[in-house]
Each structure stands twice: as C-alpha cells, then as structure tokens.
Amino acid sequence: MRRGTMKVRMGMIGGGEGSLIGPVHRMAARLDGLTDLVCGAFSSDRDISRATGAREGLPASRVYPTWQEMIAGESKLPPEVRPHFISIVTPNNLHYGPAKAALEAGFHVVCDKPLCISVEEAEDLQETVDRTGRLFCLTHNYTGYPMVKQAREMVTAGEIGTIRKVVVQYLQGWLSAPVEKTGNRQAVWRSDPARAGIAGAMADIGTHAFNLAEYITGEVVTELSARLNSIVPGRILDDDGTVSLQFGNGMTGTLLASQVATGEENNLSIRIYGEKGGIIWNQMEPNTLTLLWSDSRVQLMRTGTSFPGTGKLASLHTRIPAGHPEGFIEAFANLYRNFAMNIMALEEGKAHDTMINYPGIHEGVRGMKFLRAAVASSRQGSVMVSL
Amino acid sequence: MRRGTMKVRMGMIGGGEGSLIGPVHRMAARLDGLTDLVCGAFSSDRDISRATGAREGLPASRVYPTWQEMIAGESKLPPEVRPHFISIVTPNNLHYGPAKAALEAGFHVVCDKPLCISVEEAEDLQETVDRTGRLFCLTHNYTGYPMVKQAREMVTAGEIGTIRKVVVQYLQGWLSAPVEKTGNRQAVWRSDPARAGIAGAMADIGTHAFNLAEYITGEVVTELSARLNSIVPGRILDDDGTVSLQFGNGMTGTLLASQVATGEENNLSIRIYGEKGGIIWNQMEPNTLTLLWSDSRVQLMRTGTSFPGTGKLASLHTRIPAGHPEGFIEAFANLYRNFAMNIMALEEGKAHDTMINYPGIHEGVRGMKFLRAAVASSRQGSVMVSL
Amino acid sequence: MRRGTMKVRMGMIGGGEGSLIGPVHRMAARLDGLTDLVCGAFSSDRDISRATGAREGLPASRVYPTWQEMIAGESKLPPEVRPHFISIVTPNNLHYGPAKAALEAGFHVVCDKPLCISVEEAEDLQETVDRTGRLFCLTHNYTGYPMVKQAREMVTAGEIGTIRKVVVQYLQGWLSAPVEKTGNRQAVWRSDPARAGIAGAMADIGTHAFNLAEYITGEVVTELSARLNSIVPGRILDDDGTVSLQFGNGMTGTLLASQVATGEENNLSIRIYGEKGGIIWNQMEPNTLTLLWSDSRVQLMRTGTSFPGTGKLASLHTRIPAGHPEGFIEAFANLYRNFAMNIMALEEGKAHDTMINYPGIHEGVRGMKFLRAAVASSRQGSVMVSL
Amino acid sequence: MRRGTMKVRMGMIGGGEGSLIGPVHRMAARLDGLTDLVCGAFSSDRDISRATGAREGLPASRVYPTWQEMIAGESKLPPEVRPHFISIVTPNNLHYGPAKAALEAGFHVVCDKPLCISVEEAEDLQETVDRTGRLFCLTHNYTGYPMVKQAREMVTAGEIGTIRKVVVQYLQGWLSAPVEKTGNRQAVWRSDPARAGIAGAMADIGTHAFNLAEYITGEVVTELSARLNSIVPGRILDDDGTVSLQFGNGMTGTLLASQVATGEENNLSIRIYGEKGGIIWNQMEPNTLTLLWSDSRVQLMRTGTSFPGTGKLASLHTRIPAGHPEGFIEAFANLYRNFAMNIMALEEGKAHDTMINYPGIHEGVRGMKFLRAAVASSRQGSVMVSL
C-alpha cells in the first residue's frame, strides 16, 4: 500500500518504567516507521517520567510531570512541532480526563481499553469526538491480527452462511493468587474499584472478548445474562465470569473470561459457527485460521503476504510471507499504522482506504454498556438484561 | 492385572445393522477377550436381527425378534449357558423397559446413556438395581480413557489444589442441517421427543459432559442455570445449550453442548482449574493430558504403560507403551473389561480391586436430574434451579 | 463391507507373559470378531506357555511347550478344528523356522517384522510361500492406519503430481540408556546379533519406515547410502542411523531411525512431496492427514466413516465416525481382519476385494534387502549401494 | 536491561522496493527505538533507490545511486552525522565488496547471510574485521528467538547430558515450480550461480540450519557427507539436499534443506538429543520449546518475560509476558538491538553484557566452509569430507 512521506508525531500519557503496556504501545508505534514519539507525561512520579523520556531520547523540555501540563504545554507549540495525537496508557480511571482534554485541545487520541469507567463517561467522550472531529482509536489490539481480519471478512461476506453461534473465551491465570496483596503493580490497580471501575476481569479482558465477537461477526449484542465470580478471597471485583449473549440477528453466544484459570497464559480464542461452516482462531497461535466446513473438510488459512485465498483485508495487515510468524506487536502495530495513515489522509485532505481502520469511540461505548449490563445481570441472579 | 479364566457371556438388545453404537459395544466387549456375545435381539425388524445374529456367529435359536422374548427365552436356559449380562443399545425411550426386565430376571445390565427419559424411570431403575443386587454399567465411555482416569486421580488427590472452575465443552456439527428430515437414522430418533425424551443435544452429549465434570472433579453439581436453544428451524428439542454449574464445594462451572457447531467432529474437552494448577483434556487427542502449573510450568502426561508419573488408575486402563495411540474403542473397552471383571469377582465370590470400576446407576440418575433441571431452568428464563 | 459367517482359527507362536507384542496381536485378532485363538506355543518356558494358554481360555491339550510340537500336533487334528493360520510373534531369529514349517504343514502364516535375519532366509520363505500357495502376512502394522491408506491412494493416483521427495523418520528414545544390561527383555534380544540379526534399530524400526515409504509411494528403492551408529557404549548393533534413498522413479528420500532419541515415544512420521502438493502423516496423531498444496492451501483429512473426501481405501479401514479416535490396535486389527477375510475368500473359493490386503512375503524380502544394503553401505564409508 | 540514551545511526545497501528482506531489516532496526536509518543506496536502479529513501523519510542528499558513492559520501560527513554501521541486504555476490569497503572506511557492518560466495572472500572479510576492529553482524536471525537462546543455554550447560544427535530440517516449497523463469525476483538471483554462488538451497537456507545446529549445541562440525539435488528441471544449483554431519565431540547429525517441499512455508525445526533428554524447537511455532526427558516427562517452556524456568539468556531477548506471541520480526530485532548496544558500549568505552551478542564474521566463515564441503562431497558421490 502507498504511504505518504510525512511522519506522524505522538505524545504519550502513562507508560513509564514498570508499565507493561507502555513499551508495547511504543514498539507498535515505531514498527512501521510512520510515527515518532515527541513528548510524554509518562508517570505521576516526576523522576520516572523524566527517566522514561530520557531513555526514549526526548528533550527534557517535552517531558512533563502531569498530563495536564503536557496538553497545555504542547498546545502552545507550533502545529508542525506538536504531536498529531496523544496515546493514553494509564489505568482505566485515568482515561476519561486526559482523553477529553486532548480532544478538546485538538489532538487526535489513542486510548487503551476499556474506554473508561462508566457509560456516562463513554457517552460524553463520544459526544466530544463527534463534536471535535478528532480521530479516536481504542486499542482493542486483537482486531489487528491478520487472521482476525480474515475471519471478519469471511464471516461478514457470508462465507460460512447465516451465523448461529459464537463461543469466545479469554483465559488467564495470573490472578489465581492474591498478587495484588504482594505488590504486583498490574494487579493492584486492576483489583481496585476506584481505579478499575465496576468490573475486574470482565473489564480487563472480557471487553476484549466482547469486542472480538462483535468485530468478527459484525453483529450486535442486544441482551445478556451474566454470572460474575470473585473467586480469590478478599477480592471485591470479579476475577471470573460467564456471559450468555443474545445478538440482534438471532445468533446466541457464550463468553468466558477468567483471570484465575491457573496456568493459562493469555488464552483468547473464538469459534464462530454458521450454517455452512465454522471458523476458529486462537490468539496464542495467531497465524492460523481453522475453517471447518459442513461437509467435514478442514482447511487452514495462514498469515502471509503470499498466502492465496486470504482476502484483501488480511493482506493489508500482513508484513511477511507465510511461515514467518507475526506476533502480538505486529498486530498491535496494525492499529497504530492504520491510525497514522488516517491522520495523514486527514491532514493531507485525501481520501483513505476504509479498510485501513481501527476500533474507535463506538467500540468504547459498546464495551462500557457491556460491562454495565453484565454487572447488573449478575447482581440480579443472572437475569437477562438488555444492553 | 490378574484375570480369571472364565469368560463372561453377553446378550445384546438393539445394535442391528445400521446402528452406530451397537458395533462399538461389540468391539469393546471383544477387545480384551473376556466377554462372548451369546444371544441378541438386535432389532425390532426380525430380518435385521437375524442377519446381525448370523454375522456375529450366533445360532439362530439365540437370536430373538423382541427383547421380551429374549429375556424370557434366555431365562429358561441353564445358568452356565445363559448370559451373565444384557447390553442395551437402543434409543433412549427403550432403555427403561429392557433394563428393568433384565434386572428382574437376574441379569446384570450394561446400558447406553442417557439412562432413560425421566427421573422417575431412573429412580425406579435405581431401586431395582439396589433390590436385585445386580451390577449395572452406564456407558459414559469417556470416563474409560486413561488420561481421564489420570485427571480424576490427580484432581481428587488435591494435586491442583482446591478446585475452582471447570469448563467442559462438547461440540458436534452433524445436526447443523435438518438431517432428521432426510432420513439420517441417528438424527430421526434423537430429534423425536417420543424417543429421545425431554432433551436433545443436552441428553445426547450434554449428559456425557456433565458426567465427565462430576467424574473428574469428584464434586456434585447442586444448582444450575441453563439456556437451551433449538437452532435449526423446525426442531422441537434443543440442539445447542449453555449451562452454568454450581458445585457443592463452591466451585463454579460452565458446560457447553452443541450439535450445530458446524464442522466439529466430536470435540469434547474439559479444563479444570485449581489453586495450584490446571488440567486440560481433549477427547480428539485423548492420549495427552496437559498440566498447567501456577508457576507457569507446562507439563504433558501421556498414555502409555511405561509412562512414569501416571498413577495407578491410569495404568490399570492402559494397554500399550506410550506413543502407540489408544483410541475410542480402547476407552470403551475399559468399561466392558471392568464390568466383566466385576462380574467374575462376584460370581467367584472374590473381592475385586475397587479401581476396576465403571459408571453405574447412580450416574444415570444424576444425568436425568441434570436434564430435568436444565430444561426447567431454560424454560424459566435461565433462573438458577437446584438439582 | 460384507463378511462371511465363518470364524477363522488362529494358533500363536510366542507372545507369552511379558511379551509386548503378543497381546497386541491377540487384541488385533479379536477386535472384529472374525478370528478365534485356538492353540499356542507361547513361550519356550513351559510354565509361561501354559499360563498364557489358560488365561486365553485354551484347553490344556492345545497349549504346547514348543512350536515344533504345536505344528505337529495341530496338523493331526481334523481340518475343521485345526487353525487356519499361525501367528509368529517371536524374536527375529525365530521367524524363519516356524514360518517355514507352518507353511509346509499347510497353514497360512502371520509373522511379525522384520521377516527374518538374512536375505537368504527371506528368499527361501518367498519360495515356500509361492510353492505352497499359503497366505502370508507380515505385520507392518502402520500400513493399517486409515490415513496411511488414504495417503497411498492419493499419491499413487497422482493427486500430488510426480513425487520427488520422501522424508520418513522413526524416533524412539527407549534405548538411550543401556537397558539391555539391566534386564529389559525387549532390549536384551534386540541388541543381541544372534537373535536380532545384522541390524538393531534399522531392523526393528527402520524396516517399518522403509516399508511405509515404499507402501505409500508405490515406488521402489533401488540404491541407498547409509550411516549407522552405535551410540550407547558397548552396543554392537546400530541404535541410530540415517539413510539416503534413491527410488527407481528418480525420487530421492531420507530415512532416519533412532532408538536413542531420548524422550521420544514412538514418533514415526512421513512427508511426501510431489509437484503439486505434499502429504504429511504422524503416527502419534494418526487420524489426521495434512495436505499441503502448491498454492499454499492447507487441508486436513480426518479418519472417520463419514468423512467426505477420503477415498474407498481409507473407508474400508475405518470403523467409527470422525472425532472418535482410532488407534494403534485398530490399525493393527486391519491387517488381521484383511488376512482373515482373504482366508475366508480362499476357503470359500470366492473372489475377494483386492483392496482388502496386507503386507506379505514380498515386503519381507524387501526389508531384508534394505537391511543388507544399509549395513554394507555403512561399513564402506556410506557409499551408494544398490538393493 | 539498561540502555544508553544515544541513538545508533544506520545506512543501508540494498533493500529497495520489491525487496523481501530489506523491509524486515528496517522494521527490526526500528522496533526497539535504538537505531535510526540515516542514509541508503537501496537499489542499483536510481529511481527505486530514490523512492525508497523518500518513503523512509531520508533527505535526498543521503540517498545514493551506488553503494560506492554512499560509502564515499558518508565518510566525508562529520562523525556525529554519518552512520555508525552499514546494513547490507543485497544478493550474495554483492556482500563482499560493500562489506569490505564499509569496514575499511571505518563503519561497523550488518550483513545478510550467507556471508559471501567463497571461503576466500569470507577469510578476507574475517581478516578485515580483525584488522579494523569494526563490529560485524551476520543476520542468522533464527538465533535471535528467545527459545533458541534458551535451548542453547540449556544444552551448553549440560542439562540434557552429553549430546549425541541433532536433526535439523529446513523445508520450504516456494521453489517447487520453476518460478525463476516467470520473473520471481527472489528466485531469479537465488538460482543464478553468478549471484548466488556455488549453492542454491543449501546457501539460502541450509546455512541457517547449519548455523542453528552449531549455535545451539556449541559444537563444531568437522566432517560431512552430502547429497545435493537439483530437482526442478533446468535448475543448475541445488534446490534440495541432505547432509550427514559429524561433530568434533563425537555427536552425529542430519541436516535437510529443501526448497521444493511443496506446500511448506518456512518450516525450520531442530531436535537435539542428549543422554538425559531431548529438546525440540520449530520456527513456525517459535514460542514453545519442548523438553523430552529420559524418564518420559514432557515439559513445555514458553517465551514470556514472566516465564519461570527460562534462563537469563532467553529473558534478555524477550519483550512481553507469556501468551503474547513474539514473532519473526522480534527475533530479527534482537540481533539489531544487540548490535546497537554493542556499538553504544564500544562508542562509550563501556563494558557490555557478553550475553547481548549476535552471529558474526566467524559464523560467516563457518557457513562458507560448510557450503564448500557440501558441494565437494556431493560431487564426489557423497564421500565424507572434512570442513
């Protein structure tokens, strides 16, 4: 695909030393050479922020102690210097504020998932995005995998027939012990309702699973029945849950999310069954898409620039020939690349390929509605609740 | 293990030409050379019954047109000639009658699952078994796999710690088209409430999944919430469903059973997570048990007489060294072998190894209670229902 | 497929208590209900022979202390009583004598592989088979797997185009320690040139690999270059080796056989590449055949009576629907079933389906020539040697 | 690990539009944010070179039509502007000249494999590296995978005991048709002796396999016997081959390399067997290392920053927690990162962690000696030839 020659400039909020996802965002932004990090407020700890900035090669003048100062400071810089977009990689409760401020200041925004901590915040962000016309990317990064793109293209084109059933599972084991009590930074904020919001595992990974189901099928969940469990003693938020999904097209689904599935790494998988066939994808072996056909044929599609049979959507998100595994960072980078290309197109007043896209504010609002419904259903004895 | 030198004699009801499961029962009974088929009423079609009997090498005098005649006729033969047990491999609605009659006539019984079509029938059979003292085996054959035995031994010995979560899935695709309308014999009776009972997929395969979850964990489901779907238009009984399980020990579980998962063969899998580790088993690759430990180590246990680390229970149910795959028939044969050895021990008045066992009438009653609860919950908007 | 109603009678030489392969032969013979064991000389140890006979339910009169006595004794019984065939499951050096005697006495013969211990013995047996007109089955049991049949059918029908390359590997680890010195019965005779013959691993498992390559491709090895290694100190015969194969059709191949591949179970795999595609089969997951097409499509074929796309040959050797794993014993049983059906056809003077076949004396001679050439090449610095 | 704050500057020779490996090198160099591309001579086609430079955001003044002009031109720039190193990603015959010139001009060098086209060139380059003291990285990129690092650490530490056997296979199918005749750029030069050198598949992928075997085992091949085949009609160089390896420590090995294994993607695997265990790694599923122990235990090690049990070497080359697949680019990037860190250390006069390393000129010379010996052996009827 053709690229322009400009570079897109990025600022970052959060992601200082010790952050898990901050470095992933930076690697993803760098991979394709379209985006340069130009400023950051990497931590509420001034020393950490400064150290991270230095390591990233930023001048001290563009490393800030708070996100408020960064947005204020960068806004004063000339347009050709200040960042095109701000990437927000803070805990859930610190998405809304920076995102809203950045949008209002005229910056595009990339925001880690889930969008925020309430439907109200989400809808306000949506209104802000709509009003400001700024671009907004929510990093539901699993949608960036080529084989997820391929699945979406096939399913929405009707290749497996009318879809009937989706089973999506996201199993992790890292919270099977109360590591939040022994100082695990990732666990501490995720298990704290003040920072994580109304849900735990369901917010952290359930929203990924929910998004993946809606993304691949192109269908919308209308109702759900949920059962959320707090399995490790002393934990306030859910660390495990099962949700029955009812989609608008009549399809049903089951969503499992657990962070107490002891020994599981990051086991996200989805199975979609239609009248004519089934499609299976597993994140831990992401380069294979398994197609099951109603006449029992089994077929494997594989990530690879040269793989015949994969459609245009997958090809646009693939970098190397088949057999050279593409991984998590490459998929994540697809979101950043697409976002950068959209910014370029916008800046240059050009049309852009609509396949070069990314999850946005809409997906963020959906996620928050999903969480609200799941928590409500679980509290009311798993009754069916509409979204 | 030591075996006696007597042969156990078997009669069969059902399983004539065109039967899927009849030949499997016969191969399973033959494999270890402990059991001889001596009589049968293989079909309600007299010609089919006769042809099957001839093919099995039975004298015409011991091939009957009806099960009633067989039980009556064989009862008149001398004890050293008549069968020790009757194997019942008919549709669900034809389990109760023959089983009850056979028990009352003094025969031991092997019966295909599910036990029957109502809790009332099940409890009456249980009373009959208790009163007559006859042995009863319900062919929940998946419990016969060595690695299922190994999983049970490890889980019940506490090797993965307090168990918290079980996820069991049974996915098939063969009913994704309305094949009952195009003459598929297996589909015709399974989709007919008069012959299958109150449930479809949940009875046919859901009871296997339910049994497997209780068998491996050694825990008892006390409550459930179910959502059963009839996805293929025109189908009265469920062909798909999800059940949330609550176990007596506080553990939760999720059970999926679908026969409209297009393209799936016979994909039964179970994952059990405890405080210290997780255990995964898949029926389609049955010789591997995957152990996930809380410290992230991943270990594979493999079926094989020489595999160190597998416990006594698995060893007792394994025939060949590791790397020589044991399959479905071998697992099925483990039930028959164990049943035959129990009959021998009983006949010879000897004690027998309690590890040489098989699912029985109790498991049959559990299955019927599971179905009753699942159907009730689903009809009442997925409310939690106690078993 | 139609079967006659007669039962085929089998005698056995070798396979007493402690034998690995004896019980496998008996299970395989029993599985389909076509064959009854009627006599045996199970061990040179009279007590063991007697105990095994008793366990198998044989009358004492038909359990013999030596194979010579068995052949003599059974030959005197009426035709309708004496065995149709003799199964020989002794160490390699004890194949020729019993096989020859059995054939001369008018019995058909099943013989474990390798056929014997020299090309001379092999050719003499071939002459005997030809002269007596008796049926002879050599248990290269891996050819009994449905997916091996399918591979052969596809390859010989040209579906993957002109074949160019075959890679066959047979990796085991059980001889990685000198277990023959610590009493492992299987290892003792296999590492003893007097009983095993001129080769060790190459005879024990290399001949299987060689047979599989010739069987699936339908092509004949004409020349080879070999390098045999005796890796464990003190071992006289090879326990590891690599052979370059040249086939008559111009195709080349590589054969690896090792019994010191520490930790490997019974890892036999074969890959065949043609102009249009490749075919991969692994014995440890025998129910899947992977097809790689030149346009990069990957397709899985699966064992199962109902699997569309598999050809007639595979279907004839499959017992249950897809997803119900068939294993080692089922594949082994396919040889016994086919052999029994050929005996029936011969006895009844009927034509039989030529697809219902089994490896025979020809394959035995090929195996001995392969071993002779491999040993010769290795001794002469891996020079190319013709078969 | 700590990083300095300087950026390393890179120039590139080759890798213009249409290049396969050029973009991979650039992504790999970018991923960790340590290296900036500052100049290039991307193609002998002036327009292509210019277009690539523009796309990479380079000023026109630093995009050159020939590598000679680039080296000359950049040498005149001030030290703080000109590149620290030159990356050479041209066909094999265009490695020696640019590499030698760059070294002589004082630049460090990264060079694609194989090093060059003769042992003479290789030894001259080695002399040049030694004399100039410049750093030299040969991109045997598969050594960059964390699980390859882990395998090396375990094997060289003796964890699987004295090593006995290595089996390394590299199977591709993309040359199974004569695509060099239909304009495939990659195939054209690789099948042309003038540009590829004395070997085809063995040079292109066999050297990777050879390097991997020596890298993981830490042992040196002393002799080999090879059989190289030109399977596709009309091809001068080998497109397939098998090599028997003899290592200095007594270990034997088998190396297969084929580019006519129809349907194979990029199937590189290695199996190493020692007295105590075996280690298996497959490039297409690179995040798993399978350990087979002599007592039959099977254990999986997994890439992941948090995976206990993996050693320091793997940890230093891992970016994200287990379950988030790292792929080909990440492994490639490990070479670039290590090279950049070594340059930084050298520039700053600091000691560096010797685990932060990369394949160098020595590996390049080994590869050329391997090719020379393999071609010689094959031409002389597979005789054993010493390296």
Overview of this protein structure:
Four copies of one chain form a homotetramer. With 387 residues, chain A is of the alpha/beta class. Chain A folds into two domains: 8-142 and 335-359, 3-Layer(aba) Sandwich (Rossmann fold), CATH 3.40.50.720; 143-320 and 365-386, Dihydrodipicolinate Reductase, domain 2, CATH 3.30.360.10. In chain A, 35% of the residues lie in helices and 22% in strands. Chain A has twelve helices and 14 strands. The first copy, chain A, has helices spanning 21-31, 46-55, 67-75, 96-104, 119-132, 146-156, 185-190, 193-196, 201-217, 312-315, 328-347, 361-379; strands spanning 8-13, 35-41, 85-88, 108-111, 136-138, 163-171, 221-229, 240-247, 252-258, 267-274, 277-282, 288-293, 298-302, 385-386. In chain A, the strands form two sheets. In chain A, strands 13-12-11-10-6-9-8-7-14 form a nine-stranded mixed β-sheet. In chain A, strands 2-1-3-4-5 form a five-stranded parallel β-sheet, sandwiched between helices. Chain A is globular and about 65 Å long. The model of chain A has no long low-confidence stretch (mean pLDDT 95). Chains in contact: A-B, A-C, A-D, B-C, B-D, C-D. At the A-D interface, helix 1 and helix 11 of A face helix 1 and helix 11 of D. Strand 13 (298-302) of chain A pairs antiparallel with strand 13 of chain C, so a sheet runs across the interface.
